[in-house]
Amino acid sequence: MLRRLGARLTGGRVRQIGDDAVSILTPIPCLDRRSIVMRPLGSQPLLYSGTSTLRRMSDASERVHVYVDVSGSMNGIVGSVYGAIHDCREWVHPVIHLFSNSISDASPQEIKKGVVRSTGGTDIACVAEHMANNKVRRACIITDGWVGKPIGAHFDTLARAKLGVALAGNSANSYDLSEVANQVVTLTT
User: Fold this and answer.
1) Burial bucket for residue 143 (CB in 10 Å: 0-12, 13-18, 19+)
2) Do 140 and 2 touch, CB atoms closer than 8 A?
3) This model's pTM is above 0.85
């Protein structure tokens, strides 16, 4: 889901070009560890290790802002959710947003350690306000779904964004966010 949310596909495939460093073997003499050792031993190497840059095309994408519900009803599964975020870190924005009744930002290192900052309750309004204030265009909300239906400006903010909702837990509720989500998936733990 994170890969799909981050993709910038509009009509055709949008690609980006980037340089990658690649290890190569070359007949051109250069200082590398192997040749430095071989010369004093009386052997002349035929190939030397070197690096070159290679231009490659890849799909253009943005990192997705992840909002994790850390309310009391998510207590039993937060560890599994954190593990999934860590496994998908290449698509995740460098700051992970923990929410209950307010937003608390966490670094990937804090997520790896299992840090939870919660007020206990749950309200989707704080997520919508954070997205509006920070101009978030792509987001994934990981929750059990019991966040309340967004209304007014909060509904508009969530509906405008490219939004994915990952429902976690045994009693997940897809009703509250179904009208604003572009994609809803149910996670199994």
Assistant:
1) buried
2) yes
3) no
